[in-house]
User: Fold these one by one.
Assistant:
Number 1:
Amino acid sequence: MSIEALRDQLPDYAKDIRLNLGSLAADGPLNDQQKWGTFVASALASRHEGTIKAIVAEAEGKLSEEAMTAAKAAATIMGMNNVYYRFVHLVSEKTYSTMPANLRMTVIGKPGVDKIDFELWCLAVSAINGCGMCIDSHDAVVRKSGITTEQVQTAVRIASVVHAAAATLDGEAALS
């Protein structure tokens, strides 16, 4: 399976998603590790088996084993953090924001790859999961270290298109 195979599975009404998948995979302001790590983390956050398999297969020749593991870890840790911090942000009781999270998240400090790439992947997953606190936090870190707004936007564009592809295929499966 590959991104091309994933694109071929999308119905005609999702032509824009097909075209966006192709263009985002082809070029852009991110280096290969940043781009393919974003694709992998976003696919895992999408939770759609076919999307995950296609994107991981495509990325296997483009990411080191360490980067592949870190991209998976970014999706995993943000799956936890996005729920927790979205709750803290949305709940009316402000006492929660003063309490320690008491959640283990050491992978953020030692991801096994360039920390900025990991933070960018966490940002993309946070966009998928809709956690404003995490989006702001990760955006501040990557921007402070030199990632441009165009690079951040590209990572979030990847996340949005991967998520749309997964949602479309989930919807098609439900209709069959």
Number 2:
Amino acid sequence: MPTTNKPLDVIVIGGGVNGVGIALDAAGRGLNVLLCESHDLASATSSSSSKLIHGGLRYLEQYEFCLVKKALAERELLLNNAPHIMWPLRFRLPHQPHLRPSWMLRIGLFLYDNLAKRQRLAGSNSINFSANSPLVSELTQGFEYSDGWVDDARLVVLCAMAAKQQGADIKPRTRCIKARRQQDLWQVTLQDTQTGAISHYQTRVLVNAAGPWASSIFNDVIAMPAPKALRLVKGSHIVVPRLHDEPHAYILQNSDQRIVFVIPYEGEFSLIGTTDIDYVGDPALVAIDEQEQTYLCQVANEHFKKKISAHDIVWSYSGVRPLIEEHASAQPQQESSQQAQHVTRDYTFHLDTKDGAPLLSVFGGKLTTYRLLAEAGVNAISPFFSHIKHPWTQTAILPGGHFRDHQHLQSELCQDYPWLPQHMVARFVRSYGTLCHHFLYGAHQLTDLGIDFGGGLYQKEVDYLVQAEWAYHSEDILWRRSKLGLVLNDEQQQQLQHYLTQRRS
């Protein structure tokens, strides 16, 4: 295919949260944007987090006050901008004096409460654990504080949908295979990973937001030396039958100075994580190992009355965090004596203009600060566009988020669709918000939703996800657009994949 005639303003490489955030911000400021992602949206790090919108309480021990302050401020904004996929979550921190003294925890929680303005979240307080607590009897005192929960993969998809509404061209399953400067333009070659079709584009600015692949993009695509090194750190999580019936999450201190979260997950389960292990290899092949499983089970067993083992794990996932390797050359995977959990979660940019068309590369970052990162990234390239508009995403509601609160939206759906089972209503509210009307409108009974794939997943929802949210494979739907892979059996999952295959033929 010949090169498209009219140059784009921006091409973004990478369909994780930072990439779609930049595409959304730039498109909303009037730039002509294309985003390419070699796999599904949020198919790597951005769907493998602890599912938290948080300031990072433990980062205070590393004196990262600026990072925590930024994240805490963003936490409030995001809870307002995406109320369907984000909501407040109360955390309990059991106190173990031999690990951290109470005065240290009190100071840390005081800073956490006051580094940024709180509007929706309650402050911290001390608590006593009763005999009915799910914790072991030795743990009698602790603290409570507030943070936020997020469906990370849906956050990415909703940002991509919002970017598309602003005019961006979103191309998942499209790999950037070559990018070369030609005076004041980038010549970019893309390949459809399903068909192999090649397309060529020109763009004024190229943005490298490839996450764990941000450094390798330089060697494999741009043919330039990487300006910064990334330290790849594996974080793994396990999902087990729910350890307790309380609505609270727990943050557990361990003797190795790490912390582990135990979070209520998808109603019937507990999510436990994360680990921090240096990783070498292809980030696409990352997986939990037996040692990590044992570690997470051991930490949980030291705190909770209900004991678990690897046999109780119903699902696990691992992701690779692309952390900034400080005091190192631009050679990836260089030896470092700094423990992985102490490496900064902040982000930085590298803007290269010395040989012509600008190249902006994103290194590091965390889920909570994605919007701030995106705004700063577009600010960095704004001098190259005379027509660019002002920042706008601070109060931008993501698709489906225009409603009062979960309770009122559930009531409205029950009134509009009284035949819907309550568990489906609850899932639609926290996954789609008002977007669920796209596949519910016109239905008068469950059979109107088409094929029943199990677990409350019906054909109309699947068709919507394919048409509007770029779903392609069954795993896109079962593990990123939803977590229904936890409840559908193998036969049901195969039926879904068969339907998607037949639908494309």
